[in-house]
Amino acid sequence: MMVPVRCFTCGTVVGEHWEEFDERANEGDEDPQEVLDELGVDRYCCRRMLVSHTDLVDVVSPYQ
Amino acid sequence: MSAEYDVEFVEREDRDARFLVQGITPAFANGIRRAMLADVPTMAIDTVRFVENSSVMFDEQLALRLGLVPLTTPPVGEFVEDDTVTLSIDVEGPATAYSGDLVSSDDLVQPADENVPIIDLKDGQRLEAEADAVLDRGKDHAKHQGGVAVGYRHLQRVAAVEDLPEFEEPDRRIVRGVIEEDGELVPTSEFDHDLSNRYPGQEVTLEDVPNSFVFHVETDGSFSVEELVTRAADTIESRATELENAVQL
Amino acid sequence: MSYKCSRCKRDVQLDEYGGVRCPYCGHRVLLKERSRDVKEVDVN
User: What is the protein's known function (chain C) (predicted)?
Assistant: First the structure.
C-alpha cells in the first residue's frame, strides 16, 4: 500500500527517501543502485525496502 | 576495574558516527551497545484519536505509521516518563499527508523527518487525527529505539610482512571496519574494504587489538549520536547505582 | 443506524419492517457509514 516508514530489519527511516527514489529510479530511467547510493541508503536490508515496494493506493482507491 | 579509557572519533556526522574506544572490556562495550538500542528513552506517538479518516487505510494501520515517525527528543529533565505531547494532523485530498504535516504542541518535540509519506489521499478523502507522544524505551517498543544499526568491531592492526612472489595473482583480502596502521586509524572504505588494494603485492598480517572497539552508531534523528551515547552511558550508570543500593543492607 | 445504498449512493435509514433494501432504487446492497465518534487507537 504505502511505503513502510522504517526498515523492517534495522529500523532506519526509509520512507522519507521513497518519493525521490520512485521519481528517479521507477518513473525515471536512472540506475536504482546509484540512486540508493546517493540517497545514503547503504545497507541491503534498507535497500530492499525501497526496491521491492509497490504503491497500491491507486489500485485500491476505486473500491472505497 | 580500570577507569582509564580513550575515545577517538573516526567519522562524525550528526546522525552517523564511527568512533574508537580503547581500554574497555568486551562486556562493557556490549553493555553500551545494548543500552543504546533498548534503554535510551525517546519520544514516539503512542495513542491516536481519529476524528476523520476516509483514506484507503485503516485507523490502526495509520496509527502504526504515525508511531514509527521519529520525533525529536527533548533534553534530559524536560520530560518525565508519563508526560505527553499532543500532535495533530489534518490533510484533505487530493494530497499526500506527510510526517511534516504533524503540528506539535511543543517546540521541543517535532517530527525529525518531514518527508515520510503517511497516506496518499484521493479527491474527497480526509485525514484528521490527534496523537499523543510519550517518552519510552526501545525495550518496550521498537518505535522508541533511538539508535539504529548500532554495532562494534575490534580495531584491527595491519602490518605488511613480506613481498608476495612476483607473478602470483593476489587474493582479495576483505576487511570491514577500521584498521590501525602504525598508529593511524584508517576506515576500510578508503580502499574499498580490500587490503590487496592498499598493499599490492604484499603479504599482510591482521590481528585484533585487545580491548579496542570501533563503534558504528546511527540514530533515527531523535537526537545526535553524542547525545545517544552519553545517555546510554547514563542509563548504565543509573542501573549500576540502583544495583549497588539494592545489595547494600 | 445510517447506511448508504451502494448503487444510488443515497443515505438509507433501516427500520424493522422494510428489510434490507434501498427505498429509492430497491438495491439490496447497503454500506454502513463510519460512525462520527472520535476513535482512539493504541499504537502497537
Answer: DNA-dependent RNA polymerase (RNAP) catalyzes the transcription of DNA into RNA using the four ribonucleoside triphosphates as substrates.
